[in-house]
């Protein structure tokens, strides 16, 4: 395939960015989107130009590092895949592809296509942990009975990879789907009960402090989430939050 790429270039966090146009030829439909960007960077380096900075690590849909807005969609036109799992067969010869970073105040651009996602990590630090009794009486996790339906829900929530696509795609730049997944993965399990109330209060507080917007139930996050995290987790987190707030006030 021969492609025209419109790529967001921005020197640093303070610089004003702009879309630059590049021609890239002979791209295999079997290559991944990131391999296509590797080709572009090879071309740019051979021409003596600076390569495009973009985030990636595992390249198999696990780490959540690859975060691109492709033709106006978080992680591109395919469903339930990350950018690194997106294949060039989703595009056709002669296409023009727009490639931009996540756009959200709480996830500022560092350079080109890379954004600073430490706000999501600070939310995790505010409550994404459990207390374990390590005084010699530690219970074997396999000896704690958990209903299958609860274990399944906890696993569904835990499949969130923290990529931030939910924030990027939300018109309010809300991080509710991410936070709801992180709260729920613990609250469904007995091991998560010790800090259950303070976890939801602290994580939501940190989310607000970081400047993420509010949820207005438009559901774009659920559609673009590469892991299919359900909006139901947001409803569950809201219930938990209200419950915990009442206890905290009394
Ligand atoms: S909820 Fe989905 S879109 Fe949001 S951070 Fe987790 S995996 Fe990414
Ligand atoms: S590079 Fe790890 S999820 Fe895409």
**Largest sheet data:** 5 strands, mixed
Q: How many separate helices?
A: 8
CATH-level-2 architecture of the largest domain: Orthogonal Bundle
The 3D shape can be described as elongated
Low-confidence stretches: none
Report the bound ligands by name, code or SMILES. iron/sulfur cluster, FE2/S2 (inorganic) cluster
Helix/strand-derived category reads alpha+beta
The total beta strand count reads 7
The CATH superfamily of the largest domain bears the name: Alpha-helical ferredoxin
CATH topology of the largest domain: Fumarate Reductase Iron-sulfur Protein, Chain B, domain 2
Helix content: 25-40%
CATH class of the largest domain: Mainly Alpha
In whole angstroms, the N-to-C terminal distance is 64 Å
**Widest sheet: strand order?**
2-1-5-3-4
Quote the average pLDDT: 96
Gyration radius, in Å: 20 Å
Strand content: 5-15%
Count of separate structural domains: 2
> Order of helices and strands, N to C?
EEHEEEEEHHHHHHH
Short description:
The chain has helices spanning about 35-45, 120-125, 150-160, 165-170, 175-185, 195-210, 220-225, 230-250, and strands at about 5-10, 20-25, 70, 75, 95-100, 110, 115.
Description:
With 250 residues, this protein is α+β, with helices and mostly antiparallel strands. It has 2 domains: 3-111, Beta-grasp domain (Ubiquitin-like (UB roll)); 117-134 and 144-249, Fumarate Reductase Iron-sulfur Protein, Chain B, domain 2, CATH 1.10.1060. Helix content is 36%, strand content 11%. It is built from 8 helices and 7 strands. The strands form 2 sheets. Strands 2-1-5-3-4 form a 5-stranded mixed sheet. A two-stranded antiparallel sheet has the order 6-7. The structure holds iron/sulfur cluster and FE2/S2 (inorganic) cluster. Iron/sulfur cluster (SF4) binds next to helix 4 and helix 5.
């Amino acid at each position: 395939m021969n492609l025209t790429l419109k790529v967001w270039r921005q020197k640093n966090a303070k610089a004003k960015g702009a879309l630059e146009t590049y021609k890239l030829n002979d791209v295999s439909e079997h290559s991944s989107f990131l391999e296509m960007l590797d080709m572009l960077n090879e071309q740019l380096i051979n021409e003596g130009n600076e390569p495009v900075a973009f985030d990636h690590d595992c390249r198999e849909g696990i780490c959540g590092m690859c975060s691109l807005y492709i033709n106006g969609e978080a992680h591109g036109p395919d469903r339930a895949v990350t950018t690194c799992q997106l294949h060039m067969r989703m595009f056709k010869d002669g296409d023009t592809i727009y490639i931009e970073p996540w756009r959200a105040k709480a996830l500022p651009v560092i350079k080109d296509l890379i954004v600073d996602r430490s706000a999501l990590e600070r939310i995790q630090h505010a409550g994404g942990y459990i207390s374990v009794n390590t005084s010699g009486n530690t219970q074997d996790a396999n000896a704690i009975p958990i209903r299958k339906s609860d274990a399944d829900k906890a696993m569904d929530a835990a499949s969130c990879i923290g990529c931030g696509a939910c924030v990027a795609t939300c018109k309010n730049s809300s991080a509710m789907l991410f936070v709801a997944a992180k709260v729920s993965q613990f609250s469904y399990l007995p091991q998560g009960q010790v800090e259950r109330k303070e976890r939801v209060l602290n994580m939501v507080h940190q989310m607000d402090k970081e400047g993420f917007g509010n949820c207005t139930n438009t559901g774009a996050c659920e559609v673009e989430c590469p892991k299919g995290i359900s909006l139901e987790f947001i409803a569950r987190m809201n219930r938990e939050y209200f419950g915990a707030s009442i206890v905290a006030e009394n």
